[in-house]
Design brief:
heterodimer; A: 122 residues; alpha/beta; B: 452 residues; four-stranded mixed sheet; 17 helices
Chain lengths: 122, 452
């Protein structure tokens, strides 16, 4: 009987102690709401399998046409052709401005190329 | 695309690109960086960049590109599944108000100024101002088209409304604004600004200021609704994190309040429709309209010319990043002068302006590469225009709607109902003949009544 009373008293003290250090029992601490929205889940995309060598293969260099970057694109094309002559490098302008999508070009790349380099400004 | 790819990005955007690649589901994307910038750089310098190293990896650029396209994948590279993403909790861990305020600043939840901490009690009060349920989805928002959108409920918008210092009666207007899904902090290096114009009975109902100082910080409703747009954009719309979801090189001070003001409808000249009526709403509807641009100039010019001619001249020579669209915000006494000068409607005035403005030569030639080539070949009328010199005005208006060659037809869809790219709004207290003009274009409107 005495043992049970001690246990109850002990439990009560533990509850009291827990309350005194508990989050909401401290008047100086307040609870506020999360201002952020809901982020979408991210589905991982497996990367495309690489060929060990690009010799004899075609690679597209896609110029997204960020304004006034043509000299860089043309120099890149020339440098790749000179350094890796066994690969066919194709320089291609994307349709429209740099923000426009070009699904037809992506289909062409998939059909004809072993890889693509996509240039984005600035 | 399903094909091995290596993007080449300038080094300044490493944070943007690596975080974007993760969010797109390709955390190990093989990116090659070049020194920044590559725009307007001569071929010789570009050649040096390309012969050199990726400034981030220190590896030779060409070899790294080739390696990115040909190196076999790791086991991880070839896997699908889902990437880790922190779980959202409705409540934040308790703390003192002072520490919570600091936490809000550190997390980027604020606009840099103190906010009202959103307790459950305050948010519950805000929610009483709408018939919508707290868990109802309001919309989605993203910093720019390539970025991911975040989603939000009525309750989440209410949290941000509390933070902005809004009274509950402002909440339907804020919900309508949130439902448009347009961020106030568009992610571009060009530091966009936004503008929100309120029309209809709600203006008086919530005590917005249409008079003296309408566009300034003198009225709680104007201020809090405009401020809330930026908090919503940062917290609900995944926007405004420098380097990652915000790239404005200098930033834009208009984003603090987003030029939120109501149109002074009683101050409109007879025959001039309120903005929301121009956009297809009834006069008795309450509406918030959204504009996008960069800058606004405040102008008064005591001139022997009539005001409408001064405005025409300003529009002809006006230059900013958004040079092909304009919004005029006229004080009621300016609007009255313009109307009395023979412009019975906003639309007729906008049409007059579009038809009677040319483009400064230097600007025309810098925007129209093909025309410049034709001019140099002697083709008319371009050659004749070019002979007059860069300082002469080319008789082609920037403010007549036309889709740029090769651009998305959606560009034209946005212009429906307005054959010019000039919008006109009236606000202010009539203390002088002031007007404001800027490169803002109309984006869209939303019904406030739908969110009551």
């Amino acid at each position: 009987m005495k043992s049970t009373a001690v246990k109850i008293l002990g439990l009560a003290l533990m509850v009291a102690a827990a309350s005194s250090i508990g989050w909401t029992a401290d008047p100086a601490r307040i609870v506020v709401m999360n201002p952020q929205g809901v982020k979408p889940e991210i589905r991982k995309i497996p990367m495309a399998v690489r060929s060990a060598s690009l010799d004899g293969k075609t690679v597209y260099i896609v110029d997204t046409k960020y304004p006034n970057t043509k000299p860089f694109v043309e120099e890149l094309y020339a440098a790749l052709k000179a350094k890796y002559p066994a690969t066919t490098w194709v320089l291609k302008d994307k349709f429209g401005g740099y923000m426009d999508d070009d699904p037809e070009l992506w289909k062409e790349v998939k059909a004809k190329a072993a890889g693509a380099i996509v240039l984005v400004g600035h | 695309m399903g094909v091995p790819a290596v993007p080449i990005i300038t080094a300044r955007f490493k944070e943007l690109v690596t975080t974007s690649a993760y969010k797109k589901g390709i955390p190990n994307m093989r990116i090659t960086y070049t020194p920044h910038p590559i725009t307007d750089r001569p071929a010789e310098l570009c050649r040096q960049y390309i012969a050199g190293n990726d400034p981030n990896s220190g590896q030779p650029m060409l070899g790294q590109i080739y390696d990115g396209l040909s190196r076999p994948l790791s086991a991880e590279d070839g896997k699908g599944g889902f990437l880790p993403r922190g779980e959202r909790t409705r409540l934040l861990p308790p703390d003192t108000p002072e520490k919570l305020m600091e936490y809000f600043h550190e997390q980027g939840f604020t606009d840099g100024n103190p906010v009202i901490l959103p307790t459950e009690e305050k948010v519950a009060e805000m929610l009483k101002a709408t018939s919508r349920q707290p868990d109802e989805w309001v919309g989605q928002m993203r910093p720019s088209p390539p970025h991911e959108a975040w989603y939000y409920t009525v309750e989440m918008v209410a949290v941000n409304a509390v933070m902005a210092g809004a009274k509950p009666e402002y909440f339907p207007t804020i919900l309508a604004l949130a439902a448009k899904g347009v961020t106030s902090m568009f992610s571009s290096t060009s530091s966009f600004a936004r503008m929100a114009v309120v029309n209809g009975p709600v203006v008086d109902e919530i005590g917005m200021n249409t008079g003296i100082g309408a566009m300034g910080p003198v009225n709680r409703a104007n201020s809090a609704i405009g401020r809330c747009w930026t908090l919503i954009s940062r917290n609900l719309g995944n926007s405004g994190k420098p380097g990652e979801t915000y790239l404005g090189s200098q930033g834009n001070p208009l984003n603090y309040n987003n030029l939120c003001f109501p149109e002074n409808e009683p101050g409109l000249p007879a025959g001039w429709k309120p903005l929301h009526v121009q956009k297809g709403f009834k006069k008795s509807d309450s509406v918030i309209s959204v504009f996008s641009g960069w800058s606004m100039s405040d102008i008064a010019w005591y001139s022997p010319l009539p005001i409408f001619e001064v405005i025409r001249g300003w529009l002809e020579h006006f230059f900013s990043f958004g040079t092909n669209q304009a919004t005029l915000v006229l004080d009621p006494i300016v609007a009255a002068d313009v109307a009395a000068s023979g412009h019975p409607t906003k639309e007729s005035f906008a049409k007059y302006l579009a038809e009677n403005t040319g483009t400064p030569g230097w600007l025309y030639w810098s925007q129209n590469e093909k025309a410049l080539e034709q001019a140099k070949k002697g083709e008319e009328p371009y050659a004749g225009w070019l002979r007059q010199g860069q300082g002469a005005v080319v008789p082609v208006s920037r403010y007549v709607r036309r889709a740029p060659a090769g651009r998305n037809p959606a560009f034209m869809a946005r212009a429906e109902g307005n054959e010019t790219s000039i919008e006109i709004v009236v606000t202010g207290g009539g203390t002088n003949t002031f007007w404001s003009g800027g490169d803002f274009g109309y984006v869209g409107s939303a019904s406030v009544d739908d969110w009551r």
